[in-house]
Amino acid sequence: MASHPAPAARGAQRGIQSIEVGGALLKALAHAGRALPLKELAAEAGMAPAKAHPYLVSFSKIGLIAQDAASGRYGLGPLAMQLGLISLQQLDPVALATEAIETLAARTGHTVAIAVWGSRGATIVRVARPASAVYVSMRHGTVMSLRGTASGLLFAAYLPRAQVLAALRDDAGGAGAPSGRGAAAGARIEADLTARLEEVRRAGLARVADLLLPGVSALALPVFDARGTIVLALTAIGPSAVFDSRSDGVVATALREAAQALSTRLGRRDAA
After folding, report:
1. pTM (2 d.p.)
2. Alpha carbon 100 to its chain's center
3. Residue 57 has pLDDT above 70, yes or no
4. Per mean pLDDT, which of 89-98, 111-120, 180-189 is the most reliable?
5. How far, in Å, CA of 54 to CA of 60, rounded?
6. Per residue in 194-234, pLDDT tens?
7. Percent helix, strand and coil across the chain, each to the nearest 5
């Protein structure tokens, strides 16, 4: 009775080794972000120039690589650019992040939400709840205060100033709203808010504790696209008594890893 080889296990499929070897050159160019001479490119890919050259010739023929006639440097070609643009067009940031927040909710034990910038400000569009019995609920469509929530502060820190100021005029009733009238009160609030936004950018995350809701804390981290524009916020929220709000704590670490991975998938080169 003839025997037949077992099918390859998922994740261990047989590939074409020469393509994988040549792919190191494409990765090296993408990592460098600029055209490179043959010797430097080969070194970045971990191979000898004589070995790298035939791959570059083949890649040039199909448009993945282009060589500058004057300098001899190699850069990404028109086909690589077309593939990159098509890939970005096909990516839906919210759909990608929806997969991530389910994992984050299970990993952190807290509610995790996606916030995007809508016509009224930072708006919750997806929510993932943990399996634990105690968690803080968030609702789809909720517009978050720019002054008093982690999601709002995050967008305020990374959006253009004019856009933020326009939204702040409509942000009535948020924590930190002026309690008095006149230019002096407004100036004090503006200075305080400016300092908070600088801290958000410095830390790379927004954090609130017992601000709008006593006993509730939250952390929010940004996801950027290829142009460096914030496209959404990953926000975790939970009871302050059990919520790790440290910038290097378990919640922030989980959110940071997910945000960096999403930013990389959306074309952000320096996501880390």
Report:
1. 0.64
2. 11
3. yes
4. 111-120
5. 10
6. 899 999 999 999 999 987 788 999 999 999 998 899 999 99
7. 45, 15, 40
Domain of residue 213, residue span: 91-265
How far apart CA 169 and CA 146 sit, in angstroms, is 10
- Give the per-residue pLDDT at 93: 87
Q: How high does pLDDT run on average in the chain?
A: 83
Domain-located, residue 63: yes
Question: Are residue 231 and residue 207 in the same domain, yes or no?
Answer: yes
The CATH number of whichever domain residue 195 belongs to comes to 3.30.450.40
Q: How would you label 23-50 residue by residue, b for 16+ Cβ within 10 Å and e otherwise?
A: ebbbebbeeeeebbebeebbebbebeee
Q: Is the dihedral of CA 60, 64, 68, 74 positive or negative?
A: negative
Q: Structurally, how many domains does the chain consist of?
A: 2
Residues 50 and 146 in one domain: no
Give the 3-state secondary structure of 90-153: HCCHHHHHHHHHHHHHHHHCCEEEEEEEECCEEEEEEEECCCCCCCCCCCCCCECCCCCCHHHH
pLDDT digits (tens, 9 = 90+) for 141-151: 888 988 889 99
Q: Do 31 and 108 share a domain, yes or no?
A: no
Number of Cβ atoms within 10 Å of the Cβ of 119: 7
Distances (CA, A) of 78 to 6, 15, 64, 82, 141: 41, 25, 7, 6, 41
Final residue belonging to a domain, choices 88, 118, 138: 88
For residues 237 and 109, what is the distance between their CA atoms, to the nearest angstrom?
10
User: Helices 49-62 and 38-45 meet at what angle, rounded to 10?
Assistant: 100
